Amino acid sequence: MKKISFRNDVLPLKNMLYRLALRITLNSAEAEDIVQDTLIKVWNRREQWDSIESIEAYSLTVCRNLSLDRTRKMANLAQSIEEVGADRPDGAQNPFERAVQGDRIRLVRSIVDSLPEKQRSCVQLRDFEGKPYKEIAAILGITEEQVKVNIFRARQTIKTRFQELEEYGL
Fold this sequence. Notes:
Layout: H1 6-10, H2 14-25, H3 28-44, H4 55-74, H5 95-113, H6 117-128, H7 133-140, H8 144-168
């Protein structure tokens, strides 16, 4: 069995944990706090690491649960997501095309942010983090079929809302 190292196995997950927490809380400062709390909780369970099948899945589960708890307490779903990193859309040659592409990315982000929590988490883990369905199911505590349904519905909603907004220019 592989020996788990906090420095090599847990710390590299912090950016992924942050993105998940940010997707759920929609608040950068809250997400940073949740990542710190997650790392502390994972560290405090170091005696049981040998019995944990996937430290990554365990860490993501802890992060998701802390995020949901914090969101319920704070009821801050109305806030919009803060920009994370620099968006440099590829393929846009002139400033106008870059601006249009940037607007589209912000539009998709706001649509994703408005999805129900389960759909938002599934899309975050699958489309942004590249996690397999089985791992997403374990992290969220639902079946693989439910993961697929949530992702399908989320993608349909994103597509429909995006087309409506693009068509009517709202």
